[in-house]
Hints:
318 residues; 4% helix; five-stranded parallel β-sheet
Amino acid sequence: MAIPGSGTPIDLTDIATEFGDSAPHSVSEFYRGGGLVPDSATNSAIPTSGAVALGNFYGSANVVALNLTISANTSNYDLWSNVSGNPSYVAGATAVTLTVNPGVTVSSTSTGTYALSIPSAFNPADSVNVVNNGTVVGKGGNGGNGINYGGTGSNVGQAGGHGLYINRPVSITNAGTLAGGGGGGGSSRSCRYHQGFWPKSGGQQGQFYNGSSGGGGGAGASVGSGGAKGAPSGYAGANGTATAGGVGGARAPFPTYPNQWAGKAGDGGARGSAGSLAEDTKGTDPGPGGTPGAAGRYITGNTYATWISNGTRLGGVS
Length: 318
């Protein structure tokens, strides 16, 4: 706690207690930047050499309070990058508080990047606190692309991205939402339909082909894209939204044989939810579609977290 402001009587014992000095005490031990007193803006009235008086210590503190606020939507926020260059930061003597304002979203531009990162680069003696009144959310995963008949395509839904990453002790007051991005839906499987012997020249067997439909994109502030349709037919999946997954591409039946089809693709997942598996295909090459994408994590590094309040937490945790 800081030494009281001007007007309150203080003595050398008060200063020694604040800055952790052992007896005997001398005022010349407490120069700013001299080992006991952090060289910070909070302590700017304390000289670095020469004459020093008790009055120079009003309002001074052994711990520097550094408060940062995210007041507008942003992406890929790295707390260390925003603290390390701040002139008020004193390694080992700073209490950092990051506040995300109500209505503000911290997001990620890729599923491989966290929306908010707090790495281990801080001095171990620093304290870090996060107060989230807004939304911290990973990117939505893309839906699996529909398969062209014959096998061309990638029908696996993409996993959702992650929200918060911490790699050192952090106290978290979550009054808002921490969420992983939704996983992308898996596309359905392509198929063919044998009519049997079609009455045409040579009595050749009639075969009809359907490409599959694309999976829906996962939810996130940066949404997952719906998967493309396969050839020669099929339907594209819809993009996700901020909170809901996109709908997977529709079932693709054969025009004259509606009881045979390439199945409907899987829907994308909502925030913190996995995508869905496609409907089974019904035809000569039946079977399920591609694997849906997993949900993103709301936090990675939970063993470092001290939860002051939980708020809304959606998705996986590790």
